Automatic annotation (TrEMBL):
InterPro entries tied to this protein: Glyco_hydro/deAcase_b/a-brl (IPR011330), NODB_dom (IPR002509), Polysacc_deacetylase_ArnD (IPR050248)
Domain (NodB homology): residue spans on this chain: 7-216
GO molecular function: hydrolase activity, acting on carbon-nitrogen (but not peptide) bonds; hydrolase activity, acting on glycosyl bonds
Name of the protein described by the UniProt record: Putative xylanase/chitin deacetylase
Record bears the keyword Kinase: no
Gene Ontology process terms (BP): xylan catabolic process
Signal peptide span: none
Organism this protein belongs to: Nitrospira japonica
Keywords: Carbohydrate metabolism, Glycosidase, Hydrolase, Polysaccharide degradation, Xylan degradation
Domain of life: Bacteria
PROSITE patterns, sorted: NODB
CDD domains per record: CE4_NodB_like_6s_7s (cd10917)
Amino acid sequence: MTSGCHARFLVTFDDGPHPNTAAILMQLSHNPIQQNIKAMFFVQTRNPAGGNSSLGRSLLDRECAEGHVLGLHTGTAGHVSHTALSEHELDQSLRNGMDDIRVITRSETMFVRPPYWRFNPDTLTGYSRHGLHMLLSDVKAYDGIDWGLHVFRQWTFHLQLEGIRRRLLRRELPTVDGMIPIVVTFHDTNNYTAGHLSEYFDLLIAESDRVGLQLDSKPFYDCASDITLAALPRTVHPVEAIEAESQPAEVS
């Protein structure tokens, strides 16, 4: 990579909280790669198997207490696509989710990632009404709903990071405080991810080196305020929605 800027990984998780979240938090705090990595968790606040359970609420409290960022995934009782909701239903779900997160963090969440990564101009308008910014991803583990694609994890990381290197050479990615944020997505709900997160981190670094990506000496973001600043320029705005909408949808 010819750019003088180094890259950092902005780690995100979807679909939690989940019983696996505790193991994920432990590995973020203590792993052989970098201690005290911080992440952005896109959470389901009213799912009875997630944030609307006693365990889920305690995990959300723990995420906040340990310095992670909470973004909104769903404010509905189930994992329902935002594009399947009426305008009123979407607005209500966003209000509910934002209210739930505010109770935990004592501040407004700024970020949303739609279920199944499905969105359209109407949902984007709804996000804007509530001051939410939609964050997608540069690198995916493709680990939703316990997919078995961890068998191909090195290959998929390599291909995605090679694509990022080409985008950097074309100067298509923004720089924030001298760093280039690369958004990486995992899922709390995947048992393999929860048990092997440190290995994923190691693979990200190894494959970055193989494709020629220059990483910072701290390759993962480790401060909530830095995550917020790094994420904002990476969010999708309505004028960019057509291009982003052409990307494959996630399964969770």
